[in-house]
Amino acid sequence: MKGTIEFLKSFATDRDVASITPSSKYCVRKLSEHINFSTTDVIVEYGGGTGVFTKHFLKKMRPDARLFVFETNDNFYDLLNSIDDDRLTVFHQTVEDLLELLPADVVGSVDHVVSGIPFSFFDWEMKIDILSKTREALRPEGSFLAYQTSGHLKDPLQEAFGNFTTEFCWKNIPPYFIYDAVNRVNGASS
């Protein structure tokens, strides 16, 4: 309940919060089907919110895996930063600074980037900039997984990654499209 109240407060005061409620457990499980936690070393999360994905990932991750979360909202950052787990690093900064903030040994080695930030709020150049940096952070064959309210990411993903698949997660308020783009070595150039 605390997470829902924080979401409602943040939705009313922070223009970058695109939803009135945290993602549903069904949505979290649906997106997590794209992650093999037994072989995953590093996950990066854009827009950790109240931590529903963050906490789920930490339950599923290996003891030696690492999770880096970006969250600009003050209330959400405080919630995420209160999670006591040595595998978790929370940045109170924008994902545009991804490559500067991630440890050097992580850049180019990230298995999955999971994003809940509202790409529909960004112009084309910002979308491509973030997706290009994301691709640079990912290991070859690593994936970018985004849950979004519309089909607006199709063209930017095709431009930045050269591929993507989508599925619809209707058991969520609002319903989400789940995008999966793979960092193919011979894919689109970033």
Automatic annotation (TrEMBL):
<keyword id="KW-0808">Transferase</keyword>
<keyword id="KW-0489">Methyltransferase</keyword>
<dbReference type="InterPro" id="IPR029063">
    <property type="entry name" value="SAM-dependent_MTases_sf"/>
</dbReference>
<dbReference type="GO" id="GO:0032259">
    <property type="term" value="P:methylation"/>
</dbReference>
<dbReference type="GO" id="GO:0008168">
    <property type="term" value="F:methyltransferase activity"/>
</dbReference>
<protein>
    <submittedName>
        <fullName>Phospholipid N-methyltransferase</fullName>
    </submittedName>
</protein>
